[in-house]
Amino acid sequence: MLVAGAGVGGCRAVQSRDLLRVGSIRHAVTIGAVFRYARMGELCHHATMIENETTGPRPLLRRPDEGELIDVAGVEHFFKLTAEHTGGRFSFEEFTLEPGIVGARPHVHHGHDEYFYVLEGQLTLHNGDGEVTAGPGTLLAAVRGTPHGFRNAGTETARALCLYTPAGYEGYFREVHAAVAAGAEVTDELLAEFRGRYRTTSS
Description:
Radius of gyration: 30 Å
Strand order of the largest sheet: 5-6-7-14-9-12
Order of helices and strands: EEEEHEEHEEEEEEEEHHE
Helix content: 10-25%
Largest sheet: 6 strands, antiparallel
Strand content: 35-45%
Distance between the termini: 75 Å
Low-confidence stretches: 1-52
Number of helices: 4
Number of strands: 15
Mean pLDDT: 81
């Protein structure tokens, strides 16, 4: 038999009836108690494993004001998660555009998928067949190879979420923003040039 707390692996061998010393007091140990002590040893070992596992990766908490703000052609892209946070698995943003702003003319991604979810206002979405008006709660799944685009044709500010998988397209917005900050004019040709670097073509 084994008793937790002594010997190899925290246990020692005992007979069907033995004496267990706790402090200066010697206690008789029955076979049933031995199994209970052994079970306690297993639980202690399991608890240690859990404790060790929890020293690994932790969930990432992002406060409302934490993220990367990228202004591109009148659209405020606020990335809460980028490739750096997710190991390249996906990126996630909230974007805002005022009335009359064209967020993106019809285009096609060949290397990633995008999922749009409207929070406030209305977006006019291009879904491949034409344009549809999308209010809060509407979702558009623009998987790779499908033409899509969006603009705000309404009278109120529109706010929506977008999930990119895999991550990486945030680099496009960074590059466009940097080019404009350096004095470049936003034209369809400029956007097409940068999109091409991210396996994206105009539709």
